[in-house]
Each structure stands twice: as structure tokens, then as C-alpha cells.
Write a structure and sequence with these properties.
about 160 residues, alpha+beta, Ribosomal Protein S8, Chain: A, domain 1, three-stranded antiparallel sheet, about 20% strand
């Protein structure tokens, strides 16, 4: 299976390339700012997730965690919640919270990493699978308009079950 991706972030790309090739037995070629992945389909999909995480703004080591089956990356497109640009920024602001409080609380309680990308209107959540699913549900609740207190109470209840 062969996949092509645009090269978005060049720093540390050689280290990432080496890690993907070594751990996933994929060939990764970079030419004219295009990344080509070649290998077994499942490994190419994993490599693509690692690159997506890194290009989305996650630290190199966090992105590399996606090589493990314990980790996942979830992407929430805010455009799925509204078509109005101003409302998209409001929704992103709800997820971030005042001085980053909402985002930070969800990250700390679930032990996940969250990137809010205002350019693409997307929210990326990286971590261990069960915790990412909980963090994703909390973010979705905020995007749906639930009160922050409702979301945090839900989060506190659900984290005890994990």
C-alpha cells in the first residue's frame, strides 16, 4: 500500500522517518515536500497517524507513541458542529476555556494531549485509547453547548470507572 502526504513540518523529520521505518517496517520517502509511505497496509495506516499527529503540532515523542497499539489519535472537526465561522471560533474557545482551563483540565484528568487548531478548525486528541475516548466525549459535550460544570462533573464520574 502506498500513501502520499504533504510535508508540513520539517524539523525532526529524519528522526521520525527513522523511527517509523524501524518500528513499522515501512519505507518513508520525502521528495519535493511530499511524503510517500510504502509497506503493509496496517503499518502504513499507523505511520500515517504518526505523521498526522506530528504535523498537527504534537511533540515528536508523543506522535511516536502512536506506533503502540495502546495509543490513538482522534480528530474532531468543528465544522461538523456549525457552518458559521464566528461560531467555530466560539466553540474552539469553549474547548480551550478561560486561560486554557477547560483544555488543561481534560488533559490532566484523562492524561491525554489536546491540540486545538484554529486554522483548520480541528481538535486533535492523543493518548491511551480509553482515555482519548473519554476526552473526546468531553470535548463533544462542550461543542454541543453543555455547561462546563456539567462536562467536568461527567469527567470526574467517568474517570473513576477507568
Amino acid at each position: 500500500m502506498i500513501e502520499y502526504l504533504p510535508l508540513i513540518k520539517k524539523e525532526n523529520i529524519e528522526k521520525l522517518k527513522d523511527e517509523i521505518e524501524k518500528s513499522l517496517n515501512c519505507k518513508l520517502k520525502i521528495e519535493n515536500d511530499i511524503v510517500t509511505l510504502d509497506g503493509e497496509p496496517l503499518n502504513v495506516i499507523k505511520a500515517k497517524k504518526v505523521l498526522e499527529a506530528y504535523f498537527s503540532g504534537f511533540e515528536l515523542n508523543d506522535a511516536i507513541n502512536l506506533i503502540s497499539d495502546e495509543y490513538t489519535l482522534e480528530v474532531i472537526n468543528v465544522k461538523d458542529y456549525t457552518r458559521k465561522v464566528n461560531r467555530m471560533f466560539q466553540l474552539l474557545g469553549r474547548v480551550i476555556g478561560k486561560k486554557g482551563k477547560s483544555k488543561r483540565k481534560i488533559e490532566e484528568v484523562t492524561n491525554t494531549k489536546i491540540i486545538v487548531n484554529d486554522k483548520d478548525k480541528k481538535i486533535f486528541i492523543l493518548g491511551k485509547i480509553e482515555k482519548v475516548l473519554l476526552a473526546k466525549r468531553c470535548v463533544e459535550m462542550l461543542l454541543e453547548g453543555k455547561k462546563h460544570s456539567t462536562v467536568f462533573n461527567f469527567l470526574d464520574r467517568e474517570i473513576k470507572k477507568l
